[in-house]
């Protein structure tokens, strides 16, 4: 009788455990379902944010269902990983990569129009065939990729920032809804802007790739020039770049940076200043376009990576400048050329609707500036 009673108690406990496990499993399934619903509900929020990131007439939005989105992102991640690991260099028929090769890194976002203008200006640059162009993207797009494939005037490589908003739309480093809900106090500051933060993250990642993660640059100890998709280069920018490299040992051996676009060009004074070299402290009122530095400077910057990454500003140049107070006795020195060889076209139509980028490039750059390059004696 006692044994039978023990069996009943054991059976009762077993049934109770099974009931509890069943209830817990149902709760887990409901939580999982709620999470999926939350992701789907955030889908529209994601596209609002995505439109703010690619809000330009030259970037085509491609809406698709949530299932297709996840599938496409997975495919993009696979493709990007393959490209980044492959590091294929195109147009090697133009010549080998050696100490005479100028390595130019171009940070590409999503504006096809500006990017095409930059490519057109690079194509006209003298000596460009001896350069290696590294296109670093944070937006995977077939039209932009096709524009890159059209490059036949220089050797080039593509790399893709693998932590972009496009690949992580609903979680950090993209738009993370949990940023201010899991113990983080955000009431006294502005919410994090993933699109703005991405520019700084992308720049740091691409610099790491160029100097530390590419076999082709392992033994490259010369300057690397950094451009952006909204830049426009003059026909003689490589000539001016080599000039700065040549005179630095005697003129400014302590200069950490070279600059081909430190100052916004003044149309009236441009012809007088086009060949004037300058040595300056890199200040806030100087532009960040056309900046170049070598491996020694990168190693110094890299040693202060925490200070760079945690500096409370989304601009990579401001964050880099902040290191000057710790690493270079409060200053970063720049050797540049007053007549800028790298210009910014992005600012033109964003401030004045009547000043379109087309007008700026065609009128200001082509018609006026080109008369000052390679003039006959």
From TrEMBL:
GO terms for biological process: oligosaccharide biosynthetic process; protein N-linked glycosylation. Its main location: Golgi. Substrate binds at residues 138, 198-202. It comes from the Eukaryota. Pathway: Protein modification; protein glycosylation. Gene3D superfamilies: Spore Coat Polysaccharide Biosynthesis Protein SpsA, Chain A (3.90.550.10). This is Alpha-1,6-mannosyl-glycoprotein 2-beta-N-acetylglucosaminyltransferase.
